[in-house]
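Objective 1.3, modelling of assemblies. Example input:
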Amino acid sequence: MRITDLLSVAFGEIRANKLRSFFTLLGIIVSVAFLVAVVAIIQGMNAYVKENLAGAIVGTNAFQVRRSPIQIGLYDDEEMKRVARRPRINATDAAAVRLAIPDAQAIGLTTGFPTPRSDIAWRNREVGDILVFGVTPPYQEVQDYRFDAGGPLTETDLEQRRSVVVLGHEVAEKLFESVSPIGQDVRLGSEHFEVIGVVAAKGQVLGQSFDSFALIPFSRYEMLYGRRLTTTISVKMRDAKDVDNAMLRAEEAMRVAHHLRPGQENNFSLETAAALVNFWKQLTAVLFSVIPAVVAIGIVVGGIVIMNIMLMSVSERTREIGIRKAVGARSRDIERQFLAESVALAILGGLLGVVGGWAFAELVASVSPLPARITGWSVILAVTLGATVGVVFGVYPARRAARLDPITALRAE
Amino acid sequence: MSPHTDDVALSTTAERAAVVQAAGAQPDKDWVIVTRGLKREYDMGGEIVRALRGVDLAIRRNEYVAIMGPSGSGKSTFMNLIGCLDTPNAGEYWLSGELVSQKNDDELARVRNKEIGFVFQTFNLLPRASALHNVELPLVYAGIGSAERKERAMEALTKVQLDNRATHRPNELSGGQRQRVAIARALVNRPSILLADEPTGNLDSTTSEEIMKVFENLAETGQTVIMVTHEPDIAAHARRVVVLRDGLIASDERKENFTSKLGL
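Predicted structure (tokens):
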């Protein structure tokens, strides 16, 4: 029997029993849809973290030299103490890094922990609790800031320790509403600053706004708040492929600057957006290891349903099997026919599951900020799973059909 | 019983006796069916039922033979053996010069496909398939491509004057038409024998006559036909009548002798 004939019989049977086939497949459809939807949502979150969260903190093609590592979650005591013993990062370190990476697109400094929170006021309006950073102008380039209005802090602002400020999108919006913010006089705490720029919205990441900040010249900041415990050096390379090499050079320069002997542990941290993404990925890996177990249970139950229905189908079609054998079907032709049917059923279930999962993921994407990313491998996995289930749970009914004695089968009602 | 030499489609008693007695020898290809001492026993829960107790039968190409017998005579068992749906416990069965009594299941399936065309009392058509597709079925298992299949199935349907019903499903056809579709299916692979089991059992007498006419025509065009029936007036359409009783052949004679005895 030819493969095309096998398939045409298989799909003919499925078509003839549409509703029954659908209910037979419900288990597979739901399991696969769950798999595809959850994977799509997690992948979407991964992409979101990669593009928004990591980019917002570190910047793309960039890395940071920090005293303390970026960490999502809590430090344990041991690590806390170790980080607390680290020396601060100062101007000497920054100079060393600058010297080590002459090909950097931009190297900026930011005042580090603890970042002061301050109220900002304009006329009789006030916005509370915004983060105030002292930065050098290149930091704005590292962060890829786009400006809604005005422009960035300049080297002159830095040298002359001017009282000028660049505001985050959210702060400017709350403070000025429809008034143009450029040139306005605002008060940070008790100091007066002139607004010279408003950074375009970076958006919210998981409920945390990245637009609620004020940037002032690094020099002005130190006058105002005193020298902080540490600074963060942000380095941006022109190309993503240069980042690894630049990090090695920065690490070497920092080790020299901190007088570390070979074998001694780094007393500073190098962070990239990739490292942040990796951290997130570790988190999702846990999810990825739980999902297959859930899906496996669904698939096995779905497979048993298919087996059940196929057994029913064999006994319903006993006479058909007898007829086919009488006109020359071999046992293996009958076996293949029923196997083709269960495999076709299960693959169909897998495909319907993919469609269902995709639709669900799109629905989630449309009502929440999470984008859905359907990945090729989850679709391939779904179809492979379907085919495997069809074979595994189809073999027994198919064998039973093949073993039927033609004389008895022909006599069946 | 007198020998016949004028009728090519009817073997003589002497010829048959000669073929049947040459145990183990491969008969001439012209002998479509030769059985020698064919036995079949069933184990019915410890009790041995001897359905066939040594049947010797020879049928030459182009013969039109009816096999009769009361229920329990072993005619169904005999038909299953002739049709290669079953294998004997003892004895030889030669089909077209090939010893089929020792073949395995796959080989028997091939023999059924190529050499035998079945026509059943209950038609046994696939209910969801069109008439054309039902006729195609043996060709599907012969591994023939779709285009040639359709062409040959159409040809077979034309032979039974149902070419205008090719797309109809069995439930859209009358009993007589269904049986003609079944005959077309039996003929489509050009089998050595057409094996009919009570072909008119589910039909009224008018339709039965129609179907018998079809068999008649086929026999006249050279098709070997073997028909199992318990109705003497149906058997009377054949040219030779074999009667089974208690698992043995009770009589084997020309139709004329058979009918005159019955007073038909």
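The first strand of chain A starts at residue 62 and ends at 66.
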